[in-house]
Every structure is written in structure tokens, then in C-alpha cells.
Amino acid sequence: QVQLVESGGGLVQPGGSRRLSCVASGTIITIYHMDWYRQAPGKQRELVAAIASNGNTNYADSVKGRFTISRDNARNTGYLQMNSLKPEDTAVYYCSLGVGSINYWGQGTQVTVSS
What we know:
mainly beta, 7-stranded mixed sheet, globular
């Protein structure tokens, strides 16, 4: 059974930084692309960043230059480094593993950007 567990969320001031982690169990992440999504209250879930199995990355325009996605296959873990955080980054952040038509999701971690 594949499980994804996110951590690292919390309250952070505008301009601050936060690193989210996503630890996978029950599978080896090497073959998957790993994505980070977020969902703010009253809004649809949106793709924030993605990293392919070969390490290629993509970012939403709203986070380019501020967020960095990475993965450590040896630790079966993915990361989302978030810098220069803004109030509009407030959301529940979810990690996802995917390959073909298969997708696994974590339970999410809340990030609140507020002074």
C-alpha cells in the first residue's frame, strides 16, 4: 500500500521561507513523477511544481523564482522549498506521485502566510 506523508507546513511571515517534505512508503519513487499541488479556501486545487523521474522540473508562473522542487530517490522523499512567501501562497499543500494512469496523494499540510 502506497502512502505519502507531507510535513513542514505551519505559520510563516510574509517574505519567509518554508520547506515541505513528502515521504513515500510502499513503493520506490524512482519511476514516478512527483508533483506539489495546493488548494486555497474556495479555490480549485492547482499544480504548483512538478519534477519528472529524470529530474526535469516545471513550475506554475505564480511561484517561479521563489519555489524549488527536488527529490531524493535514495530517501524516497520529495521536497518543496518555498522562499519569499506571500499571503496568497496560503493553502493546503499536497504531494502526488504519478506514473501512467496511476496517482497517489498525500493528506496535505497547511501553510499559512500571515503577519
